[in-house]
Amino acid sequence: MADIVTFTGVGKRFPHTESPALEDITLGIREGAITGVIGYSGAGKSTLVRLVNALEAPTEGSVVVDGQEITRLGDAGLRKVRADIGMIFQQFNLFSSRSVAGNVAYPLKLAGWDKAKRKARVEELLRFVGISEKANARVSQLSGGQKQRVGIARALATNPKILLADEATSALDPETTTEVLSLLKRINRELGTTILVITHEMHVVRSICHEVAVLEKGRLLEAGPVYDIFAHPRNEATRRFIASTIQDRPSTETVARLRARHGGRLITVSVAEGPSVPEASGSGAPVPDAAGPRSAVDVAEVLAKVGGVHAEVVYGSVTEIGERPLGSLTYVLRGEAGPVQAVVSELSQRTEVIDWEAAA
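Above: the chain's sequence. Below: its structure in token form.
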């Protein structure tokens, strides 16, 4: 699929600031995909998303949205582009003076829809997001999750091609976050809407995104299919994000406790598949290549091959990202020094291995 949004050499500097908010960003957002943009506070994430709907203009470079270079458009052209872009906010940004139905109908009224069409569309959207029974309720009567569903329905009102979600789950509890993320996945799957998710929460990216871009201090560190970035990060900032999400590798303190408790030789074995093919035919999601999985089953194969070594799992976790396994398992190996070293060497040729004895 082609890119629906393209940033080329984009920089953004605000007046009276020492450092640029964005610097030399070149990035494509693939049509039909869910793309996450992650980074710590101050990374430039929200500035980036505001460039897409031209709420901010770049200081340098170009932003192309659905074939239109918005940096060159006048007011009329910008209104046309913005009509195809929906926005979901962290703090919902609903009108407290309007009912739920009134909030969803508002962009339709601005777009010139007649009353009958507005009513039918609002009913359709409230059914879709699962809050039809709240149509006449006031915003103050809603929970946080219900407010965000109203915000999503309003963002979808004019059937946009692109949905921008700026920290859309940050104000929600974990259970409600899961529900909202499931709704975003459904929107992407059933409506084909391209979704750009701005977040500092890696579990959001892990749960719903096909691709991810990592920002730090206004610069793009790396971008690509989510699984590839999680499994094979090239940048230390990305590694920190991933470590905080998966929590599959023991800290040095935990290693010390494991040594005291189990003895033997401790190793941590990566559970990961090879890189993704860039695009899956007919879908927004990347697919694994023909190399197939490199997983913990390799340990059993190597133990059988070498012989004389016993292995016990003492730490770790394996999760799924895009229906593919990712994580690591920590083993204690017991046996004669020679066979144990042979096991470590053989595994190291097949996947990433941390030998905690060598690390110490």
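The chain has two domains: 3-243, 247-359.
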